[in-house]
């Protein structure tokens, strides 16, 4: 089959690779109908996270049709049209049984190698680094999905592919981020980042009862999406010299009740802090740029919630004292998609959640390298590049 | 892989340093070129194996350690001296009862799958098994084990029989975990390296590295098999690499 492969830093190529087969009894083979780029892919494309190997098939946000099922698969059937969260979960371990699916104990074949990095290993993610399992990803014609009964969610009739695709990763991540905020009537939620995850976090905050949502980004077309599709108020931090002062005034001097960081180590700032981070990152000293996160920590009200969705490695100059003195609750995780998918599909069927506007650009799989170049440079107002292999 | 990789950092260089010490001291005493080559080969295999992100790599590392060990054991036989024990113990919590886990471990077919990342195991009867570890270059190391103690819900203990290429013994202990967490399982492996300075160096190397990965992987495989009925794997994982060794 054809697949988009990582061959080195900033070197993606479409290659012919072996077809996947059923290996374990709970596996299915999926024919991929749609797959999309995610900001966290840029971390290994740019070489900021370790343990990729040349030839790895990438991609972790996808949907497809079941082609083949393993002998122990009970619920999923051949021909089912399904959407699958990007983290693989077994459904049986203590973490899965406590709805902490991305922390699954039983899906990462490289758990012993990841453990030294984190203290304890997490579940695996499709199409990501070998520390996160090394499973072949979704930018391919076919894909093996382990523990299919836990990960495959049947798509209800009447929903188009692009309405469902983002329920694989961006929507559950954003929804979880808003869920972490424990939103009460009257709450104001500020969201850093208007990429796929940030926009989904904003929409989810409204679905979960937020009074107002404030979105912070630097791209006018993305901020317009936040206003037009979601009803967020927006701040362009390039045009606004003091984001904290603006947030202060917009919230009557209280600060947002909850702040969601949906940017991560991609964060692009303007001040000296940004230059310091960027210089270190360029020198491969790999402490993350953390402008958005530091700003969110300052902005959040006393006793409020900081919800971190951005993916970080190591960050220095981290203002832990601000969190402590303000009594901030910090919540964070990789997405527990298996917990949120039923709810998200329900919202989609009712017409309350339609992320199809994220699919700004379509490509064939053969155009994968060009699609990622555009996505990385945010050319032509691209939010997500979608492949139809 | 690069210096930022999970195994590229201090852990590997620690082993490599230990080996370098072993090898240089060994070279001074060794008289036969062939033994020197075996030593170096063992060291290289061990370091190589530890640098590779794969279960194959772990097997390679173990084989390297075993080769090194065997050569040193032969040499210490000449010198005759004190003995060092290398031991590694690791724990994991598994969401099954101690009785179930004991039964699984003793069930035919379970052990070969749990240890399948480094050894080929043939169970000759309920208490005896034959272990084979392949070494690149067509060689292999093997030994037989005998279960010497088995108490349902508590422990299983085994030891290698005389003539083993890498004498060892091990045990799996079970105790209930608090609340709804299942059972705490501790897997302990003992190796008996030769005496002397060389033996001590090997013991250090064996102690920190190979067995820890080996035992950690074995425990995770046991847990996944017991909890889900399968072991996560990258077998036949599509990639643009020529082979997925
Ligand atoms: Zn993602
Ligand atoms: Zn699990």
TrEMBL record, chain A:
Cofactor(s) the record lists: Zn(2+)
Domain (Alcohol dehydrogenase-like N-terminal) ranges: 25-156
UniProt keywords, alphabetically: Metal-binding, Oxidoreductase, Zinc
MF GO annotations: oxidoreductase activity; zinc ion binding
Keyword Metal-binding part of the UniProt annotation: yes
Keyword Mitochondrion found: no
Highest rank taxon of the organism: Bacteria
Alcohol dehydrogenase-like C-terminal domain location: 196-266
Gene3D superfamilies documented for this protein: Medium-chain alcohol dehydrogenases, catalytic domain, NAD(P)-binding Rossmann-like Domain
Pfam families, alphabetized: ADH_N, ADH_zinc_N
UniProt family annotation: Belongs to the zinc-containing alcohol dehydrogenase family.
Name of the protein this chain belongs to: Glutathione-dependent formaldehyde dehydrogenase
The organism of origin for this protein: Deinococcus metallilatus
Lineage: Bacteria, Thermotogati, Deinococcota, Deinococci, Deinococcales
UniProtKB/TrEMBL annotation, chain B:
Organism domain of life: Bacteria
Listed name of the protein: Membrane protein
Species the sequence originates in: Deinococcus metallilatus
């Amino acid at each position: 089959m054809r697949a988009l492969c990582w061959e080195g830093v900033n070197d993606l190529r479409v290659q012919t690779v072996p077809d996947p087969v059923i290996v374990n009894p709970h596996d299915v083979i999926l024919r991929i109908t749609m797959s999309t780029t995610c900001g966290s892919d840029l971390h290994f494309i740019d070489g900021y996270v370790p343990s990729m190997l040349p030839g790895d098939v990438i991609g972790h946000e996808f949907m497809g049709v079941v082609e083949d099922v393993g002998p122990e698969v009970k619920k999923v059937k051949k021909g089912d049209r399904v959407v699958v969260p990007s983290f693989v979960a077994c459904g049986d371990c203590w973490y899965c049984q406590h709805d902490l699916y991305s922390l699954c104990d039983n899906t990462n074949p490289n758990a012993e190698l990841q453990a030294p990095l984190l203290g304890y290993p997490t579940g695996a993610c499709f199409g990501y680094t070998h520390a996160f399992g090394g499973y072949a990803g979704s930018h391919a014609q076919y894909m093996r999905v382990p523990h299919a009964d836990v990960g495959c969610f049947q798509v209800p009739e009447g929903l188009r592919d692009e309405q469902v695709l983002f329920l694989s990763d961006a929507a559950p991540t954003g929804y979880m981020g808003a869920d972490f905020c424990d939103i009460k009537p009257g709450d104001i939620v500020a969201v850093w980042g208007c990429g796929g995850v940030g926009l989904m976090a904003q929409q989810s905050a409204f679905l979960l009862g937020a009074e107002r949502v404030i979105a912070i980004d630097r791209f006018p077309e993305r901020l317009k999406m936040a206003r037009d599709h979601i009803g967020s108020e927006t701040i362009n931090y390039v045009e606004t010299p003091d984001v904290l002062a603006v947030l202060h005034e917009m919230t009557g001097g209280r600060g947002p009740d909850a702040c969601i960081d949906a940017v991560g180590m991609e964060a692009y700032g303007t001040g000296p802090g940004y230059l310091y981070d960027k210089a270190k990152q360029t020198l491969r000293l790999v402490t993350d740029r953390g402008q958005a996160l530091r700003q969110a920590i300052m902005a959040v009200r006393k006793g409020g919630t900081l919800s971190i969705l951005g993916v970080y490695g190591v960050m220095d100059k981290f203002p832990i004292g601000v969190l402590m003195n303000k009594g901030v609750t910090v919540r964070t995780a990789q997405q527990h998609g298996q917990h949120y998918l039923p709810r998200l599909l329900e919202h989609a069927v009712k017409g309350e959640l339609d992320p199809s506007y994220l699919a700004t650009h379509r490509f064939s799989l053969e155009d994968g390298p060009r699609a990622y170049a555009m996505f990385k440079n945010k050319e032509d107002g691209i939010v997500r590049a979608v492949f139809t292999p | 892989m690069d210096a930022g990789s999970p195994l590229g950092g201090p852990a590997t260089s620690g082993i490599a340093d230990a080996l370098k010490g072993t090898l240089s001291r060994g070279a001074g005493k060794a008289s036969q070129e062939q033994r020197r080559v075996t030593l170096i080969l063992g060291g290289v295999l061990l370091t190589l194996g530890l640098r590779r992100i794969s279960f194959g790599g772990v097997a390679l590392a173990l084989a390297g350690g075993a080769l090194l060990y065997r050569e040193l054991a032969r040499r210490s036989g000449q010198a005759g001296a004190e003995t060092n024990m290398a031991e590694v113990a690791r724990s994991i919590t598994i969401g099954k009862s101690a009785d179930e886990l004991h039964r699984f471990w003793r069930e035919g077919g379970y052990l070969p799958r749990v240890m399948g990342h480094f050894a080929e195991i043939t169970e000759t009867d309920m208490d005896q098994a034959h272990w084979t570890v392949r070494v690149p270059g067509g060689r292999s190391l093997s030994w037989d084990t005998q279960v010497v103690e088995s108490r349902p819900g508590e422990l299983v203990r085994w030891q290698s029989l005389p003539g083993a290429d890498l004498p060892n013994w091990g045990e799996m202990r079970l105790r209930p975990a608090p609340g709804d967490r299942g059972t705490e399982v501790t897997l302990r492996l003992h190796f008996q390296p030769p005496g002397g300075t060389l033996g001590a160096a090997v013991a250090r190397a064996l102690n920190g590295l190979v067995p820890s990965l080996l035992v950690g992987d074995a425990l995770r495989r046991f847990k996944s098999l017991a909890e889900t009925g399968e072991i996560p794997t990258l077998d036949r994982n599509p990639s643009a690499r020529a082979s997925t060794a």
